[in-house]
Automatic annotation (TrEMBL):
<dbReference type="InterPro" id="IPR002347">
    <property type="entry name" value="SDR_fam"/>
</dbReference>
<dbReference type="Pfam" id="PF00106">
    <property type="entry name" value="adh_short"/>
</dbReference>
<protein>
    <submittedName>
        <fullName>Oxidoreductase</fullName>
    </submittedName>
</protein>
<keyword id="KW-0560">Oxidoreductase</keyword>
<dbReference type="InterPro" id="IPR036291">
    <property type="entry name" value="NAD(P)-bd_dom_sf"/>
</dbReference>
<comment type="similarity">
    <text>Belongs to the short-chain dehydrogenases/reductases (SDR) family.</text>
</comment>
<feature type="region of interest" description="Disordered">
    <location>
        <begin position="310"/>
        <end position="356"/>
    </location>
</feature>
<dbReference type="GO" id="GO:0016491">
    <property type="term" value="F:oxidoreductase activity"/>
</dbReference>
Length: 356
């Protein structure tokens, strides 16, 4: 599917929140959205100088837009909480949350909270953003003509996940013995499964995961010579510019809702993604949701910041059970299954994208 960012519809009144917006795909997503008159653009990053420059650039071209940089270290759940607090203190609505930030093939390490670094940053930090911003998304979804969405940037590299999908017992270790791409693949599988589970539990919100393509960003340029060579050899003609890499995110964030299957995984641009191994594992998705919920149970917005939506009220309640073993009168909805897209099947050795 061809995509022309110039044909993005008018975004008046809409508020977007993009993680990892200071470079690469995140930055290009912001710049493209700013050309279509959104009400507000909020974005996170670690580099305050880059953040300030993006704010200045967008203010210069579109002074009517509220553009806010939220300094945030996704290796720290407390930092994530603080960024979410800042956002809800400034905005009473959220139309689209784009979970874009990520790391790939960094040396074995733990986050500040003690999780394997890929899983902690690529999945758990975004799971916390989703948890803390969910009441705002749900309130927005109840307003007239609303279309609240969550877009998670994943990767075809999810297929490199370990046997079993997610090694829950090892997530508080560095998993240093894993082969190249395995820890990254595990975190990107989590993006796909968690987003599909979000769509089942909260059908008022359109939640999709997207692969941006193999993109020439810092995430690739900072890899080892071997990894960069692997990416070039396996994708000689398909590496995208950061602007092109943002197309699938922009499509998922702004295209006609009727063209999107809630909970689905998409490849560029708007093409149903190819599933393999455990990317459609309903039980694993539910287990991941429950594990994440337990790990994050100590993180909440203040009552003032959350608008009185904790504990969940009728306005902010989730729509179905967290797991079949939990007591509830509501049954979980089945995971949406999409046919594999036509074309050559991606092998497990294909390198991940540069966008997650």
């Amino acid at each position: 599917m061809k995509f022309d960012p110039a044909r993005i519809p008018d975004l008046s009144g809409k508020v977007f929140f993009v993680t990892g917006g200071t470079a690469g795909i995140g930055k290009e997503t912001l710049l493209a959205l700013a050309k279509h008159s959104p009400k507000g653009l909020y974005f996170t990053g670690r580099n305050s100088q880059r953040g300030a420059q993006i704010v200045a650039d967008i203010n210069a071209s579109a002074p009517s837009i509220t553009i806010v940089f939220l300094e945030c270290d996704l290796e720290s759940l407390e930092s994530v909480k603080q960024a979410a607090e800042q956002f809800v203190s400034q905005s009473d609505r959220l139309d689209v949350l784009v979970c874009n930030a990520g790391v790939m093939n960094v040396p074995p390490a733990l986050t500040k909270d003690g999780y394997e670094v890929h899983f902690g940053l690529n999945h758990l930090a975004h799971a916390l953003f989703i948890k803390l911003l969910l009441p705002t998304l749900l309130r927005t979804a109840e307003t007239p003509n609303a279309d609240a969405r969550v877009v998670s940037v994943t990767s075809q590299g999810y297929a490199m996940h370990p046997r079993g999908g997610i090694l829950f017992d090892d997530l508080r270790t560095t998993q240093a013995s894993s082969q190249l791409f395995v820890n990254y693949g595990q975190s990107k599988l989590a993006n796909i499964l968690y987003t599909a589970e979000l769509a089942r539990r909260y059908p008022q919100i359109t939640a999709v995961s997207i692969h941006p393509g193999v993109v020439r960003t810092e995430l690739v340029s900072t890899q080892s010579m071997f990894t960069r060579a692997l990416i070039v050899v396996t994708n000689p003609f398909s590496r995208l510019t950061p602007q092109q890499g943002a197309y699938n995110t922009l499509w998922a964030s702004t295209s006609d809702k009727d063209k999107i299957v809630n909970g689905a995984f998409y490849e560029p641009v708007g093409v149903p993604g190819r599933h393999m191994r455990q990317s459609r594992d309903d039980k694993l998705a539910a287990q991941l949701w429950e594990w994440s919920d337990k790990e994050l149970e100590g993180y909440h917005l203040s009552a003032v910041a959350s608008g009185g939506c904790r504990p969940p009220s009728a306005r902010c309640r989730r729509m179905d059970t967290p797991h079949p073993s939990a007591s509830s009168e509501v049954q979980r909805m089945p995971m949406p299954h999409l046919p594999a897209s036509a074309g050559v099947h991606q092998t497990h050795t294909a390198p991940p994208d540069a966008g997650g």
